[in-house]
Design a protein that fits this description.
Blueprint: E1 3-9, E2 12-17, H1 20-35, H2 46-57, H3 64-67, E3 70-74, H4 75-84, H5 95-105, H6 110-113, E4 117-122, H7 128-142, H8 144-157, H9 161-177, H10 184-194, H11 199-205
């Protein structure tokens, strides 16, 4: 499996996979360990996740590999995943996960990873917006000033009825998409930062 790595800004690593399938099936357990409402922070098998997906989204097919075009993980989450899944000391780590982790560790030491962010995209996705969206997540985690500005914006947004309704609608949609409540603000800011659809709204509440 070929993966190209590029540090697009200090401590922000973009990994580009040959196909969306390889991308998604490499990240799936790490990403859902990070933000799944059912599996966040837990040890689980791929089969358990596929069963959960079938219950939530229908048993016709497992379309996870084509549903998501970008992935993002704080380095601290990767380290936590490695510790809880006993990376390096168990046979339950999948080959794609080993390749992914080794590619990350070829760039960052364990100490450096604590202050870094990893993004995954597929080659030829044709969407710079995908990378921009994932980099916005990195900024929210790594840049305290960036995060504080958005937190102030969310307070202002929720200070009136119209803004609160808008926020709640976005929150409800994201939860239905499968995000845990812990990452809602991060997801909203990433969409607001990179989507022209929300640009005027963002300016209105700044």
């Amino acid at each position: 499996m070929k993966i190209r790595k590029q540090e697009v800004s200090p401590n922000v690593l973009v990994l580009t996979f040959e196909t969306n399938y390889e991308l998604a099936m490499s990240f799936v357990r790490l990403q859902e360990f990070y933000e799944s409402p059912k599996f966040q922070g837990k040890v689980f098998s791929l089969e358990e996740y596929i069963d959960y997906w079938a219950e939530e989204y229908g048993k016709g097919s497992f379309d996870y590999p084509i549903r998501w075009s970008g992935f993002n993980l704080p380095g601290t989450v990767i380290l936590d995943w490695m510790q809880k899944f006993n990376y390096g000391g168990t046979t339950d780590i999948r080959d794609k996960e080993i390749v992914l982790i080794e590619k990350i560790l070829s760039k960052y030491s364990l100490d450096e990873l604590k202050k870094s962010y990893v993004i995954g995209v597929a080659k030829g996705c044709g969407k710079q917006g995908v990378i921009d969206h994932e980099v916005a997540h990195a900024m929210y985690t790594l840049n305290p000033k960036y995060k504080l500005n958005y937190q102030k914006l969310f307070i202002k947004l929720n200070s009136n009825t119209e803004g609160r309704i808008l926020y709640e609608r976005m929150e409800d949609k994201l939860i239905k998409m499968g995000y845990t409540s812990d990452v809602i603000e991060d997801e909203i800011q990433a969409y607001w930062s990179t989507s022209a659809r929300y640009d005027s709204l963002r300016k209105e509440y700044k």
